[in-house]
Amino acid sequence: MASVAQEVSLKGHLKKIFGFTKFKGEQEEIIQNVLNGKDTFVIMPTGGGKSLCYQLPALISEGTAIVVSPLIALMKNQVDLIRGFGTKDNIAHFLNSSLAKAEIIKVKQELTDGKTKILYVAPESLAKEANVDFFKNINISFIAIDEAHCISEWGHDFRPEYRRIRELINEIGRVPIIALTATATPKVQQDILKNLNIPEAAVFKASFNRPNLYYEVRSKIEAPKQIIKYIRKNQGKSGIIYCLSRKQTEALANTLNVNGIRALPYHAGLDKDVRTKTQDQFLMEEIEVIVATIAFGMGIDKPDVRFVMHYDIPKSLEGYYQETGRSGRDGGEGRCIAFYSEADIQKLEKFLKGKPVAEQEINRQLIQEVVTYSESSVCRRKTLLHYFGEKYEQENCGNCDNCTNPKKKFEGKDDVELLIGAIIEMKEKFKAKHIVHVLTGTLTSFIKQYKHHELEIFGKGAEDDKDEKYWNAVIRQAHVAGLLSKDIENYGLLKVTKEGRKFLENPTSFMLTKDHDFASPEEEDDDDIVASGNGGGALDQTIYNMLKDLVKQIAKKQKLPPYVIFSENSLSEMSINYPTTVEEVSKISGVGPGKAQRYGDAVAKMIAKYVKENEIERPQDFIVKSVANKSVLKISLIQAIDRKIGLEEIAESKGLSMKELIGELESIVSAGTRVNITHYIDEAVDDDKQDAIYEYLRESDTDSVPEALKELGEDEYTEDEVRLMRIKFISEFGN
């Protein structure tokens, strides 16, 4: 324990240098530990005051503290902040590849002269032999390793060069170490301590709970419209939107700008000066929103970011937690909204192909944790904190979508009992997927190999339409409740905990909730969410029913299924935005000028009459204007098809997958434009199959591909075959 005199002294330095009158949480104990020359490990959420834990001891200690930081782009900001607390610029410097030779000489001279108290250095710069030799000859007070989770392969932002830090410190000479991270699971914490070889370090772990942050997961259906609506309702508030690809940041930023929202993209592919200027514009509030890859934000010191959105679901919960942590750092409002779709998960898993098997397994587990968080109807806060090894006792946090709009609970005691019994019967040697296959009676080659289809429990969990999704929900909730654990070292094998075995001996009530189904419209009942992913308000059921009847009449005259005239999504959007002219109908998703000219007049007249009679104020400001680039792609696709170029060749030339190309063609024909892909279909699809699919589409009331495959036979027909024939059918008969 620090003496009273030391405590007064530390608080005096805090007031004198930083202007604060008291420490946050365990800051004072951490700083005292560092000043005593002891190794220290700090796990503290974003906004908890991590930086002060090494900045204050650095400024009042003899010698220079070296701070290893992964992001060159943010070192200058950190240095500027430190310099702002003093009177001389040489109090803090950074050393990285952005410096010219003359600047490096100057920095090293001021270090040699003992004028610099804090030096920020990239791990690559630390590793240079010349720098290692230089550091041997200066007085180092301690070494701080910021963003220490980068050391661990199990962390969300693993950097191989971080694994060498310990050996470099050994070369420089034994000095105290302080490692700091805003996010680390128990596994990552162990990895950091082991790799840095500081097993005796004092560990300071603050709660990961950020009570001011509101967590929500939404369906990704028409996400740009949802985003525009949200930002318009929250004008003047700063926000960050994270995307996985550079291309997506630019496309989304363009869409926001076209719709009157000041936004800029930020990613590593942009020129350094552009990135710096963009960051400065955000800090100075010249722009409202930054649309960024994860290259942005690590260490960003803007306390009043009011929302953080994830347009693409992140690769790990650690990454998600750290990125959402940039919201509400001042303790004020912070809304964290993630958009989720199964397609995003499939895309993340596709990225793993070609990587070493062990790395694939690690990343699959990290992705699975994101799926668990997204689909679960359990309190988001409870799930997040459980992931970081922290128990959250409250049943309802009151500040996440699952708690403010809870799903109905039902008794699940028998199913939890069956699950735990099954795991024990299979010797706790299998992952969740295998357990679920056994319970649902799904015969796989893996199950045959272990003869698990011969077990009495095989198929016992399939009654009452309990499917894989249901049993995954049971596993997740039993895990969060502490009845199960995952053996991370063995790629997520399910184990039964002591509490789980006690439960099996003496089963008690266990209330379950079903997981979210993001393909279902029932998830879109919040006022902030656009109904059916379209438009700007709640769907008007009366006009929707009227439009459906009208479309049925038109379809009957044309001897076509109703969906060929207008899809249900298009009708939903019309029932929200009330288009009253043919031109306005053409702006509805899935319509376009061609279809609007053919069928739009009757629809527009019906809506105009309804609007007038009911004195409805139309939310036209919510009709999202599209970015011109998309129509350029569509025009080039139509031109290529007109030249009878093969679809594989078109997809390759446009950088699209076959599925993405088919999606673009579906969008084109649903908007009323005719495309002729007969030349491709005749080569790719047998005549008999063509006839059968055509016959089905003529008689069906729905254009659903899963329904078509179910009816036609999933073993004989592929999804692509049905989608291609649907494009041809709608093009020929609807357009």
Describe the model:
The protein has 5 domains: 4-205, P-loop containing nucleotide triphosphate hydrolases (Rossmann fold); 213-391, Rossmann fold (3-Layer(aba) Sandwich), CATH 3.40.50; 410-512, Arc Repressor Mutant, subunit A (Orthogonal Bundle), CATH 1.10.10; 530-622, DNA polymerase, domain 1 (Orthogonal Bundle); 628-734, Arc Repressor Mutant, subunit A (Orthogonal Bundle), CATH 1.10.10.1390. It has 34 helices and 17 strands. Strands 3-4-2-5-6-1-7 form a 7-stranded parallel β-sheet, with helices on both faces. The longest helix has 23 residues, at 592-614. It is globular.
Estimate what percentage of residues fall within beta strands: 5-15%
Describe the global form. globular
| Count of alpha/pi helices | 34
What does the main sheet amount to?
7 strands, parallel
Total domain count: 5
The fold-level CATH name of the largest domain is Rossmann fold
State the helicity in percent bands: 40-55%
> What is the CATH homologous superfamily assignment of the largest domain?
P-loop containing nucleotide triphosphate hydrolases
Mean pLDDT: 83
N→C terminal distance: 80 Å
Give me the Rg, rounded: 29 Å
Which structural class should the secondary elements be placed in? alpha/beta
